[in-house]
Amino acid sequence: MYAPSIQRLISELGKLPGIGARTAQRLAFHILRASSEDAAALAESITEVKLRIRLCEVCFNLADEPRCRICTDERRDAGLICVVEEAGDVIPVERTHEYRGRYHVLGGALSPIDGVDPEDLKMAELYRRVDDRTQPIREVVLATNPTTTGEATALHIADVLRERAPEVIVTRLASGLPVGGDLEYADEVTLGKALLGRRQM
Ligand SMILES: [Zn+2]
User: Fold this and answer.
1) Residue 76 in this model has a pLDDT that exceeds 80
2) Distance from residue 16's CA to the centre of ligand 1 (Å)
3) Residue 115 Cα, ligand 1 centroid: separation in angstroms?
4) Among candidates 175, 171, 146, 145, which has minimal Cα distance to 158?
């Protein structure tokens, strides 16, 4: 129906989450109408982000240096680690302005049905951080999503930490977050309250 190059653009855009065939078409035509500069800026930003962005060697958040901005910020409390499923979950927690510690991004949640086991997540790396006596950890806040897999992940980590580092306080976000929802979609007031009201596991 379309020239091959347009068809290619439509099919690439259609791979993005939440973009159906019609939206992909609409975006493709928008790009066709855009100036060459704007289209080039979009293409370059995609190339650049894939070239530059990597995972922080400490917390696995997105970074454009070996360590992310939060891990290198000396004003952040290094004794406090907030564990989240995805790098995208750091943003909503930051937006609450209620959290001044550091993070640990697991890269997903435990889901044996989908074949996601502890080895598939950055769990061993979390335990190593907790074990590292040069940087004592007081508290680990489990901020995985309030979903079945998120809860299972939090329980699993809490069990391991209780065995491995009984001196570390392990907390979970207070209820009030929409059950079954993702942290990403929680508003900052609700999430801020859930952080302040976190309870020990
Ligand atoms: Zn980091």
Assistant:
1) yes
2) 27
3) 27
4) 171
Ligand 1 centroid to Cα of residue 68, in Å, is 4
- The span from the CA of 98 to the CA of 66, in Å, is 26
* Closest to 145 measured CA to CA, from 123, 177, 169: 177
What is the whole-number distance in angstroms between the Cα of residue 162 and the centre of ligand 1?
A: 24
Q: Measured in angstroms, how far is the CA atom of residue 132 from the centroid of ligand 1?
A: 16
State how far the Cα of 102 lies from the Cα of 76, in Å rounded to an integer. 7
- The reported pLDDT for the residue numbered 175 is 67
At 5-31, the pLDDT tens digits run: 999 999 999 999 999 999 999 999 999
Residue 180 has what pLDDT? 66
- Whether the Cβ atoms of residue 110 and residue 153 lie closer than 8 Å to each other: yes
* 25-62: pLDDT as tens digits: 999 999 999 999 999 999 999 999 999 999 999 999 99
Q: How far is the CA of 72 from the centre of ligand 1 (A)?
A: 7
Judge contact between 105 and 57, C-beta under 8 A.
Answer: no
User: How many angstroms does the Cα of residue 105 sit away from the middle of ligand 1?
Assistant: 9
Rounded distance from Cα 110 to ligand 1 centre (Å) = 22
Q: Distance from the CA of 65 to the center of ligand 1, in angstroms? A: 10
DSSP 8-state assignment for residue 173: P
**Residue 40 CB: number of other CB atoms within 10 A?**
11
